[in-house]
Each structure stands twice: as structure tokens, then as C-alpha cells.
Amino acid sequence: MVLLDLALATYDAKDGVGLFSSIFSLVVIVPAFLVYIKRWHDRDKSGWWMLIVLIPLVGLIWFLVELGFLPGTPGPNRFGPPPLD
Fold first, then answer.
1. Cβ contact 80:47 at 8 Å
2. Which of 14, 15, 21, 73 could form a disulfide with 1 if both were Cys (CB 3.0 to 4.6 A apart)?
3. 16-74 pLDDT, tens digit each
4. pLDDT digit string, tens, across residues 6-15
5. What Å distances lie between residue 50 and 7, 12, 34, 41, 83, CA to CA?
6. What distances in angstroms separate CA 17 from CA 7, 30, 67, one per listed residue?
7. Cβ distance 20 to 10 under 8 Å?
8. In terms of pLDDT, which residue wins out, 40 or 1?
9. Within 10 Å of residue 60's Cβ, how many Cβ atoms?
């Protein structure tokens, strides 16, 4: 998208963003949040745990470990049955 912004002269070097890359970022962020919340539910935790990333460094590491490396809870939890059953 940055290349498209550069080609169409909508990239602002001072701000480091362009029209199309900004729109793309806004379109992608909503589904990403929904997938992360679904993964928190798979771990039997509330989607509000997404706010852990607001804690500098520690929050991001916690987020990556919880959602990237740890398995979901076995069997059904308070958010329903496992999606792969």
C-alpha cells in the first residue's frame, strides 16, 4: 500500500503515512482484534485481556506467549465448546 501511496503521490513523508495505507490499516485492525479476542476466549479468558498490550514491553511479551505459544483450554469452557470439535 505504501508503494501505491508513493505512485499516486498520497504519501506524506512528514507523517509517514499515506491515504491507502491508512485505509488498509483501519480495515485490517478490526478483524485482527476479533481474532485475538476469539483466541483469548479459547484460553478461557475475557477479551478485555487485549488491554494487556498497553503495558509497555511486559504486556506485549505476555500477549505473544498467551496467544502464540500456549494451547487453548481442553474441552468446553465458559465461552463454549472448542471450535475444532
1. no
2. 21
3. 788 888 899 899 999 999 999 999 999 999 999 999 999 999 999 999 999 999 998 88
4. 888 888 878 7
5. 36, 31, 10, 11, 20
6. 13, 19, 29
7. yes
8. 40
9. 13
